[in-house]
Each structure stands twice: as structure tokens, then as C-alpha cells.
Hints:
By secondary structure, the chain is α/β, with parallel strands linked by helices.
Amino acid sequence: MNATPTLLAWSGGKDCLMALARLRADPRWHVAGLLTTVNRTHARIAMHGIRRDVLEAQAAALGLPLLEVELEWPGSNDAYEAAHAAALARAQRRWPGLCHCAFGDLFLEDVRAYRERQLAREGWEGVYPLWGEDTAALARRFVAEGHRAVLCCVDTEQLDAAFSGRAFDAALLDALPAGVDPCGERGEFHTLSHAGPLFRTPLALRRGESVLREGRFQYTDFLLDDAA
Length: 228
């Protein structure tokens, strides 16, 4: 049986990394490349705030080509959907026959429904290798399997700002308040994956400053360590 090629929507965080691990373990799928939305104005991954050079280092360490959906900030949802559709068209020119895109989504039905509508307009289908899994067990498995990540953004309306910048490890999971999803699926926090069994080499990162933006989101910057 020939493996079906798919793109993987890549945010730089742990959920998409777990999705990559699951897809690579499944002979039905071949991950052709990573698809990432980048804020052109600030040269960072949208929402997560991860620097573009860190994103590029991730893709290189994972051995996968990177396709970027570039957006101005601020921008409209129409502009996002047009840029996303153009990126899918570029992907099909590069990999003829490609018509699947995988996501690390876990349980938010409205998010999945939106993705399905967006893909269907372009004749694509979504793939959800982690869908419906217990998020507490999934978070613990991420740590136990040797994957490594840090919290790069915290929604301070859902979680204390002090969690921003911390390692995503067993100690952090033990410290999360009740009601906070262990995978941050409701947007409580976002992560930056930097090492583990899927990385050819770990990323050498140094922690930068932490800044509150929009009066709500605590971002912690992580930079490539040139001295490493």
C-alpha cells in the first residue's frame, strides 16, 4: 500500500509535534511538509509568537520542508483564507496529487468544522490523528516519550502569567490549576517544541524577555543561541 501524502499544519508546539509522531508511525501516511501561518509584520508564527528563524530551525531538525502562509498584522479572516488557499495551491504544484492536511486538534468541534469548510472549498480533506484522545494522558505521554517543549504564550485570563517560559514537563502538569486543559486546547497556553526523538538535533535556545500583549497574553521570547 502506498502512503498518502499530507501536509501538517505546524504551529511549532507540542500538539502538532505529537501529530507528526503519530503520522510517521502510521504506514498509511507520508508527511510531505509543514504548513505554518507567519505574521509577516513581526516575522513570527501567528498566536505562538515563535521567531521565524526558530521555526526554520525546527523544520530543518525535523527533516521537513516548510511552506509559509504569510499574513499582515492586523489582518482580516478573508485575507487569511485567501493566503491559506494560495499556499495549498503552491503545495499541489510542488506535490501533484496532494490533497490532505493534518492538524493536531484534540476536541474543539467548532475549530474542526471551520477547518473542514476551509479545506473543502479547495478540494482538500483534513486529517486529525489525535482527535478525541484524553488530553491528560496525551500530555503525560509527550513528556514520557522524551519530547521537550516550553510555554511561549499564556492567556492570563485562564492561567497565571508565571507559567510563561516554563518547561512543559511533569512538574508543570502537576502544577496546572483544575479546569486548565493539560494540553492547553482551549487556548490556555501555547508551546514551542525544541527537542526529542523526532529532532535530528535539539534546538539550542536561550530565553529572552517576557512581555504582556493586548493586556492579556504573556509571551516569552526564545532565541536561537548562537554561542551553542
